Amino acid sequence: MEIISGGVCAAKGFKAAGVHCGIRKNRTKRDLSLIYSEKRATAAAVYTTNLVKGAPLTVTKEHIKDGFAKAIICNSGNANTCNANGIEIAEQTCELLGKELNIPAEDIVVASTGVIGQPLDIAPFKNGIPELVLSLSENGSEQAAEGIMTTDTKIKEVAVSFNIGGKECKIGGIAKGSGMIHPNMATMLVFLTTDCAISAEMLKKALSTDIQNTFNMISIDGDTSTNDMVTLLANGMAENEEITAEGEAFNTFMKALNTVTVYLCRRIAGDGEGATKLIECKVSGAENMQTAKTVAKSVICSSLTKAAMFGADANWGRVLCAIGYSGADVDVNKIEVSFKSAMGEIAVCENGAGIPFSEEKAKEILLENEIEILVALNSGEFSSTAWGCDLTYDYVKINGDYRT
Amino acid sequence: MEIISGGVCAAKGFKAAGVHCGIRKNRTKRDLSLIYSEKRATAAAVYTTNLVKGAPLTVTKEHIKDGFAKAIICNSGNANTCNANGIEIAEQTCELLGKELNIPAEDIVVASTGVIGQPLDIAPFKNGIPELVLSLSENGSEQAAEGIMTTDTKIKEVAVSFNIGGKECKIGGIAKGSGMIHPNMATMLVFLTTDCAISAEMLKKALSTDIQNTFNMISIDGDTSTNDMVTLLANGMAENEEITAEGEAFNTFMKALNTVTVYLCRRIAGDGEGATKLIECKVSGAENMQTAKTVAKSVICSSLTKAAMFGADANWGRVLCAIGYSGADVDVNKIEVSFKSAMGEIAVCENGAGIPFSEEKAKEILLENEIEILVALNSGEFSSTAWGCDLTYDYVKINGDYRT
């Protein structure tokens, strides 16, 4: 397997574009993105578990219930959620795009991200869609990735190539994260494309299995968005023998998918609103998988641990506190905690109690911008990783006045 | 019922004190507090559900399992949690104090608050306890309240008088809150005293019932502390007929207790770490009590809602988002949301969707320092209130470098 460039356009037959259509006032910020597959693709998607759901999710669910799609359209700047005519706007968007691309509206996935509860007009879509379609290009992944950004500061795209039965396949994706990130069954917005031939059923299986250990293990701020969605389109243009069951080919595909999703998870977490650091909590030695996950996520979600990481303060007591209230059944007296980064690793807690350590060395380690919190439960064989970021002044600044 | 002064010393037969004993370096900050009852009192306590528990809690549980206590000692500056010899230190503290007061160590409640996982020496207790006992006074409530503060900026004390069977009874309390506040079965530290005569069994019942709607409904930062404890001592010196069963007298007592605890809840929430505002979320029209509570607490815990309140931004979409992911089964399309303060009230959402409102008026309302978020679910008769605060730069500042 090899990391390659091209993002969501790396896989054969995919083009993308991103333009400014006028949903945002700032004319230099793209606010409408399109991903297009030359061949009709099998499609799988997972959505937020929030009861308050963005209107586009309802429309998308309806459109891909047959397991196929040909295009994805997504705007930023307005979430099209809690709007009286949200469904109507999302449907009209698909109709306008369908006409322009000469494909059925039902083959289009639609998504939105931005402010909740503000009326969204169809006019900017009407104006922007023709230019959007004209701009479609095999080099368009970056523009599309930019068009879905809100408070993100970095573009998130990646692709890998892999081999199935002698055929080179590719899978790539773009994502947006930043705030209101605590996914449950999906993350903010992730669009994945592959030219691997795989049945709709196996595609769904691959995606729903993978997200349990990837996007569902990120938390920026504990708030599960109303618009979370991960979509994966597979157009089969790599011409490998279609994957229709579990086995070696499916495993290879899962591994490639996981490489792409873990990369995007780390990018989303590290670029959380106001974040200065990526925090990874790696839990090992759990009695079962659920315990490993619960503990890892509880540490990543703890505001106090996040603030300590911002201050490069080795306040491991907050890590223990977060394990203790996680709800997981752990033997506190067996817990070990270490901090790790490019500057080295330092053990700070053994048998659930503090051990002497060099504060100076700990500071050096925690001043880096990618930190691992290693938790050994010493009670079994299960491991899990969760991703998050530090809690900073800028998170407060960004969210104290996001809407106005 | 009448609000009176005197805090934890308002009830007959209670004295208190607070001194600096040397756990903290700052010699002007009291760090050791004592509450003493002339008469042996019935005692009830509730504790954190965190699996990682402060050593003092284990010792206290043992000491009051007979339902009686005569004194409470509490230090700040060190939580005595995750220390190898924590139990030993907590027991020695009780022994030292028992000797000085000439009472059994088993009649003493012990508590600690501060940094987790730092060795705690017995020396400052040895030095401080004689002075502490000498300082005991009927005017000592404020000093005791100061001695338990960590990052709290305001003293939290209150008392009320009430009448049971022609006898004047009093109940008062002190509390500390500030950070790591998301209680589950108890809150950070609350010490309550009453001279009402009430059996140990009914005292326990009163306390465990009350905290479900009071301290368990506060959240500052979602982190459930390792050292949460609420203790209530009743020494019977008001000479009312002892309350031994439910009935009118018990109801009067419950009402007085609730007045004291709600007051302290509001004080704890409004003085959360870095807080500039007290936020109350009042949910009405829920199908059942659990739904009302779950929704109220979810809104209060949402980092995004908290940050919006800091910025006086009427971003009600975040309130709906938090209701949606709360896990409560609600009909989103029936939800109404209003914001209220001393400056008035403004409706912002009806039937789950936005309605036009004056941003200027909303800003005026949200710039106040006590804000109510009113959520009407329009699906039943149950109501609940949760308390919290805004998320500010100062929360990050305080917690980015608390330990060093």
Secondary-structure map with pairings?
The structure is a homodimer of 404-residue chains.
Chain A: E1 2-4, E2 14-19, E3 32-47, H1 55-63, E4 68-78, H2 86-101, E5 108-115, H3 123-134, H4 141-147, E6 156-164, E7 167-176, E8 189-194, H5 200-213, E9 218-219, E10 229-234, H6 248-270, E11 278-286, H7 289-301, H8 303-310, H9 316-324, E12 336-341, E13 344-350, E14 353-354, H10 359-366, E15 370-376, E16 382-389, H11 393-400
Parallel strand pairs in A: 4-5, 8-10, 9-16, 11-15
Antiparallel strand pairs in A: 1-6, 2-3, 3-4, 3-10, 6-7, 7-8, 11-16, 12-13, 12-15, 13-14
Helix pairs in contact in A: 1-2, 2-3, 5-6, 7-9
Please tell me about this protein's structure.
The structure is a homodimer of 404-residue chains. In chain A, helix 2 (86-101) packs parallel to helix 3 (123-134) and helix 7 (289-301) packs across helix 9 (316-324). Chain A contains eleven helices and 16 strands. In chain A, the strands form two sheets. In chain A, strands 1, 2, 3, 4, 5, 6, 7, 8 and 10 form a nine-stranded mixed beta sheet that branches. Chain A has a seven-stranded mixed beta sheet with strand order 9-16-11-15-12-13-14. Helix content of chain A is 31%, strand content 29%. Chain A is of the alpha+beta class and 404 residues long. Chain A has helices spanning 55-63, 86-101, 123-134, 141-147, 200-213, 248-270, 289-301, 303-310, 316-324, 359-366, 393-400; strands spanning 2-4, 14-19, 32-47, 68-78, 108-115, 156-164, 167-176, 189-194, 218-219, 229-234, 278-286, 336-341, 344-350, 353-354, 370-376, 382-389. Chains A and B meet through helix 8, helix 9, strand 14 and helix 11 of A and helix 8, helix 9, strand 14 and helix 11 of B.
